[in-house]
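Possible regression after last week's pipeline update?

I re-ran a chain I had predicted before the update to compare outputs. Posting the input and the new output here so someone can diff against the archived version. Not blocking, just want to make sure nothing changed silently.
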Amino acid sequence: MTTYLEYYNTNLSPKLQEIDLFLKTEEDNIIDINDVSKLLEITKSEIKEIMSVNGLNDITKHSFFIIMLNGSSDICKLFARELQVSIPDYYSISDISYIYQLPYESVLKAAKQASIEDKDITSKNINELFAYIYV
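New output (post-update):
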């Protein structure tokens, strides 16, 4: 059995870091659709559809997030769920369950094992919580 921390570190964290680095280092005002497709793991036709629905003519750093918010890949859906809980300073057990699509009872049990109180989950202790969740 593997932990969610291992899954997160192998699948989600590298992709989030790749997106972050790309956006921080991209110097062009207009971002290439091929780069966006690769980063967000969605097709160019899906990107074009999102752009059409949202009245976007070009992909900029701003519109990149609109595309990410509406994309169908796992990383896009994770981003959308994160925004829906307003990116608080502290997360609740139900927030983590929702954002990462983990069973509430698993997150609750992990929080107890990690001695983390509800609504005290932060970016500093979330890895500890993930270490107690088995997938």
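Follow-up from reviewer: compared with the archived run. The mean pLDDT is 96. Marking as no regression found.
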